[in-house]
Amino acid sequence: VHELKPDLKSNIYSCILRILASEDILVRLTALASLRDLISTAPTPDIRIRDFARSSDQILKFTFKTAYDSKAAHTKKQTLAMADYVFREMGAHILPAVPGVLSSVQDLWKQTAEQNVVRTDILYTLKSLVKAAGSESHRFHSFLLDLISNCLTPDQEHLHEAAIELWRVAIANASELSEKWYSLFQAYWHKALVDAFEDPQSTTVEGCLGLVKSYALITRPRNFVQGPVAEALSKAFSRLSNTQSFHRKIRLILAIDSFLLDVALVMSPKDFMNSFHLYVTGVISDVMPKSEEKKQSSSMIPTRQGLPQIVLENHFHLLAHLFCSAQDLMWELLERISKNEPLKVLEPLAKSWFQAFFQ
Asked: Which candidate, 59, 157, 143, places its Cα nearest to that of 109?
């Protein structure tokens, strides 16, 4: 494939299509590998998309058929990786092939009930399809809603991380949301968030926070992060003190700081401080110079020594944003922390900031 001249490459698509119809799975896998080479070596993206779009629906049909016909999980995963690659390369040009893809995914999903690793890859492949379709992914929101809700049940715990990530991307690429998406959120997100913070082995914290952020961004005028949502988040953040693993604690802190920096942009300063003042108090306690720390802190997060530089920097980025956007509210918070002597907190805070960035 690499040796073909550019003007001849388009002619090979029909040949590959015939080979993909072979009954021999090994022959099909070889043809898929050649197809990937053909796509990746096209002289320009426009030519790559033009040539492939002519038969993308048929090629994807045989790609998923190969996954369905093969018994080995690693072979199914290999063909799903090919579909994932095609979606990422084609972008929105893949839309005409979507109905056939969804039909194939349904068949493969039913077949792989005992192959969790394959189902996980199916969810991540669908994530790439949603990103490729962009706002046009609303065409198959109903399909995604059913699939995601089925994956979030307690007996499907092994699929939670991938399902939450697919959910997050679906919301992030939507131009508007139906009430069913809000119902799904109310039904599952709170338990998912609590489990993510309480389970030492959980890897879904970032996904859960990213999901809330996606809802917050698309519902900006409604101020999504308030009331029960903000309360649940604040309670979840308080569970940091129960985290035994230092490395996990650091990962959670970084995830929370990043999340709060993003949602602070779509919340009013008053709503933000009302919802997360306890966490902000903990951040201030974290960054204070050691000699200035109080033995008894009003923070819900105990003072932590030896924080990595990246944590200190993230903390200060969050504080800098809040001092700029909510100066009066931050001053009130400093007054509460210091019992009406805010300079006793502000001065060592400024010293710590200077040490973190300039020493």
From this structure: 143
Angle between helices 141-151 and 116-133 (to 10 degrees): 150
Are residues 76 and 60 in contact, defined by beta-carbon separation less than 8 angstroms? Answer: no
Q: How confident is the model at residue 205 (pLDDT cuts 50, 70, 90)?
A: confident
Q: What is the mean pLDDT of residues 251-257?
A: 90
d(C-alpha 46, C-alpha 36), whole Å: 16
Residue 225 and residue 99: Cα distance in Å, rounded? 35
Residue 1 pLDDT greater than 70, yes or no: no
Three-state secondary structure of the chain: CCCCCHHHHCCHHHHHHHHHCCCCHHHHHHHHHHHHHHHHCCCCHHHHHHHHHCCHHHHHHHHHHHHHHCCCHHHHHHHHHHHHHHHHHHHHHHHHHHHHHHHHHHHHHHHCCCCHHHHHHHHHHHHHHHHHHHHHHHHHHHHHHHHHHHHCCHHHHHHHHHHHHHHHHHHHCCCCCCHHHHHHHHHHHHHHHHHHHHCCCCCCHHHHHHHHHHHHHHCHHHCCCCHHHHHHHHHHHHHHHHCCCHHHHHHHHHHHHHHHHHHCCCCCHHHHHHHHHHHHHHHHHHHCCHHHCCCCCCCCCCCCCCCCHHHHHHHHHHHHHHHHHCHHHHHHHHHHHHCCCCHHHHHHHHHHHHHHHHC
Q: Is 299's pLDDT higher than 70?
A: no
What average pLDDT is seen over the chain?
Answer: 84
Give the model's pLDDT for residue 9.
64
Among 103, 16, 38, CA closest to 68: 103
The answer to whether residue 306 scores a pLDDT higher than 70 is no
Contact 133, 172 (CB under 8 A): no
How far CA 316 is from CA of 229, 285, 321, 350, in Å, comes to 25, 12, 8, 10
Which amino acid, 354?
A: F
pTM (2 d.p.) = 0.82
| pLDDT of 123 | 97
pLDDT at residue 174 in the model? 92
